[in-house]
Task: inverse folding
C-alpha cells in the first residue's frame, strides 16, 4: 500500500471515524481504522460492532493494499501536521510509515484481515429522505430516550411507518418511562420499518452528527433489515445495529381525557420554569403547578435553601388543580417545540400531562408527555 | 435589611464571590456570601479562609443590616432573573425574601455574625502597580508551580524584591522540582516582599482572574504582611493567606555553564514538538533532542504505537549531543515566551536545559528551566 492524500481531506475523514471507534475495549482492532485503497480513492472504515462507518476520500494511489492502525493516534498525528500532502506506505509486520514535510512517523499496525467486516447492504433498497427531516425527527425525540443499561429496550428511538389520517407518515418515539416524545412527519415510505425498529441512542446521535456535518448534501439514503439500519450520505456509509427488544405500548400512555387545556407563551413559560426550578431539590427537580381560574402559580421548595414562586396569567375557566412535574423534563420538551405558544393538557394530579405545539395538528404530529409527581 | 439593586450589577458581584466560596466544606457558612448594607452601596463578602474577597456594589438602601445566604444558590437565582430591579428584605430567623418582576424567593440564611471576618488591612500600605505588569508576571510563572499536596511550599509563586543590576525589580518564581519559570520586571517597590512571600497557586489564579475582569481600571494596589497579601482594584478587595514555608534555593538551580547555545524560531519549534510528542508515551511525555552540527533531530518512541522524528536546521558548531526533555514542559514554557525566536542553552545530557527570549536581556529578565530526562 502506498498513497498520497491532502492533510485536510484525511483529517475530515479521520475525525468522523475516531469518534466512534472504541476507546476502552478488550478487542484492540476495534480501536483501529482500516485504510483500504480503492479506485482513485482511500476507504476508511471504523466500527465498535454497534456502529460501523465507512468514508471514501480523494487520494492518489501508487500501490494498492490495506492497513489497520490506531484511529485515535492517527487522528492525533494528522491533526498536528501542516496543510500539505501526506504520504503513507506500508512496511513489514503491518507497520506503516507516514511522511509529511520534514516529519516521519512509523506506526504499529495489526493484520487488516482481522478487521471485522461490516454487514452487507443492498444498494437498491435505499430510500431517500431530506437530511433536514430525519435530523429534525431525531432531535425532537432522542432526548427522551433512557440511558440506563438495565432497560436496554428504552435506550433507543422507535422508528416506524404510520398511516394515521390516511397519509404516509414516518414516526419516531422515545421514552424513558418518565416522559415520552413523539413526532410524525409526512414522507415517502422507508423500507424495513413497517413494524418499527429501535435504533440505539448512540446510533441516532452519531447519525445526527454526520447529518449536521454533511447537511450541504441535502438528502440521506436509508433502509433497515431485521438487524441493522443502513444510511448513506453521498459516499459516506453508516451501519447501526438495531436494539433487539419490544418497545413499550406507547399508544396506551398517550392521554385521551386531558380536558384541562391551557395555552402559554413558550418562552415566558420556559424562563419561569428556569427561575422557579433554582429552588427545586437537585434530586427530584419538582415544580408544583397551582392552577386557578385565570392564573397558574409555579412553586418549588428546597429543604436546604428555601422556596420560590411565580405567577403567570392564563386563560383558564376550569376547576382549581394542583399538580407537580419534573422541571427539567418540561424544559427539555419545551426546547424542541418550535411554536411561539404551547398547549398544556392535564387531567388531574395523578395523570400524565401532555404538551403540544400551537396550533395543534389533527391528528397530532408532535406530542410530549411527562408523568406527574407528588410534591 | 432592605435594599434594591439592578440585576446586572448584583450578578457581576456574585459571579466573583461564588467562584471562591467553598463547595465542599464542613463549615456551612463558608459556602455563604455576606450581604451588608453600606452608605448607598451593598457590600458582598466571601471567603474560603484561604482567600477572602469583598466587592462594593451600587444599591438603593432602604434599611440597614446584614445577612448571610448560600452564594451559589443566590448566584443561580439572580442569573435566571430578568434585567430588572431586585428587591431584598430580611425576615425572621435570618431568612431573606427576594422579589423581582413576578418572582418571589424565600432563602434560608445563617446568623451573619458567625461570618468569619477578613484580616484587617492598612490603607496607607498599598503600593500601585499596572494591572498589565502583575498579570503578565503571574501568567509567566504560575504554570510551573506544583499541584501536589505533599509539597505545599511549591504550590505557589515566590514574589520578591530584587536589586540585581542596580535597578528596583519585582521577581516572580515558580517551580515544581522538574521545571522552573522566573520573571523580573522593573517597577516600584512593593511593601512586605523584601524577603519574598509565597502566594498560593489558587490565590494568584484568582488574582489574575479578577485583574482580567477589571483590566479597564488600569492599576492594582497591593501590599503584604507576614501572613497575608492584600490587593485592591477600584472598590474590590482580595486578601490571600500566604504559604508559610521556605521556597527552595532556586538560584542554585539556574545553570551557569550551559555553553551549547541554539537559537530556534519559536513557532516552528513549538509545532515540531506538538507533532513529535504525539508519539511520546503518555506517562513520561519525553522527546529526544539529537543535536548535530547544523541540525537537531527531535524524536519520540511509544511502546504501543510506534515512533516519530523530525529535523530542524539550526546554526550550531559544537559537539554532537543527545538529551531528552519532557515535551509538555517545553511547550508550556514556549507558550509564555513572547519573542519570535527562543534561545536554548544546554550543558550535557544530565544537566538542566534553559530557555530564554531572544535577544536575551542582561541580566536575564525571563528564564525557563527544564530538567533533563533519560530516553
Result:
Amino acid at each position: 500500500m502506498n498513497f498520497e492524500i491532502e492533510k485536510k481531506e484525511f483529517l475530515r475523514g479521520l475525525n468522523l471515524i475516531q469518534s466512534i471507534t472504541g476507546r476502552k475495549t478488550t478487542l484492540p482492532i476495534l480501536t483501529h481504522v482500516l485504510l483500504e485503497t480503492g479506485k482513485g480513492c482511500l476507504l476508511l472504515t471504523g466500527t465498535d460492532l454497534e456502529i460501523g462507518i465507512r468514508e471514501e476520500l480523494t487520494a492518489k494511489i501508487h500501490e494498492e493494499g490495506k492497513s489497520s492502525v490506531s484511529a485515535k493516534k492517527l487522528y492525533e498525528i494528522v491533526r498536528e501536521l501542516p496543510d500539505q500532502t501526506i504520504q503513507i506506505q506500508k512496511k513489514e509486520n503491518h507497520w506503516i510509515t507516514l511522511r509529511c514535510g520534514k516529519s516521519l512517523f512509523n506506526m504499529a499496525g495489526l493484520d487488516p484481515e482481522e478487521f471485522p467486516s461490516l454487514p452487507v447492504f443492498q444498494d437498491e433498497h435505499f430510500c431517500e429522505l431530506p437530511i433536514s427531516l430525519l435530523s429534525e425527527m431525531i432531535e425532537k425525540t432522542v432526548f427522551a430516550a433512557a440511558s440506563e443499561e438495565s432497560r436496554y429496550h428504552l435506550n433507543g428511538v422507535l422508528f416506524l411507518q404510520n398511516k394515521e389520517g390516511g397519509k404516509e407518515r414516518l414516526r419516531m418515539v422515545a421514552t424513558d418511562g418518565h416522559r415520552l416524545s413523539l413526532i410524525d412527519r409526512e414522507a415517502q415510505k422507508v423500507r424495513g420499518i413497517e413494524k418499527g425498529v429501535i435504533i440505539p441512542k448512540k446510533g441516532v446521535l452519531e447519525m445526527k452528527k454526520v447529518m449536521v456535518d454533511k447537511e450541504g448534501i441535502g438528502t440521506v439514503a436509508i433502509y433497515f433489515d431485521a438487524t441493522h439500519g443502513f444510511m448513506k450520505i453521498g459516499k459516506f456509509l453508516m451501519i447501526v445495529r438495531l436494539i433487539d427488544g419490544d418497545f413499550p405500548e406507547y399508544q396506551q400512555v398517550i392521554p385521551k381525557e386531558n380536558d384541562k387545556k391551557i395555552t402559554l407563551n413558550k418562552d415566558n413559560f420556559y424562563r419561569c420554569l428556569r427561575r422557579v426550578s433554582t429552588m427545586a431539590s437537585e434530586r427530584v427537580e419538582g415544580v408544583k403547578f397551582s392552577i386557578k381560574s385565570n392564573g397558574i402559580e409555579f412553586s418549588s421548595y428546597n429543604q436546604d435553601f428555601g422556596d420560590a414562586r411565580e405567577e403567570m396569567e392564563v386563560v383558564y375557566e376550569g376547576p382549581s388543580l394542583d399538580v407537580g412535574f419534573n422541571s427539567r423534563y418540561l424544559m427539555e420538551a419545551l426546547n424542541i417545540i418550535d411554536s411561539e405558544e404551547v398547549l398544556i393538557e392535564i387531567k388531574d394530579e395523578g395523570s400524565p400531562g401532555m404538551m403540544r405545539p400551537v396550533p395543534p395538528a389533527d391528528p397530532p404530529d408532535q406530542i410530549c408527555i411527562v408523568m406527574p409527581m407528588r410534591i
The mean pLDDT of chain A is 95. The radius of gyration of chain A is 25 Å.
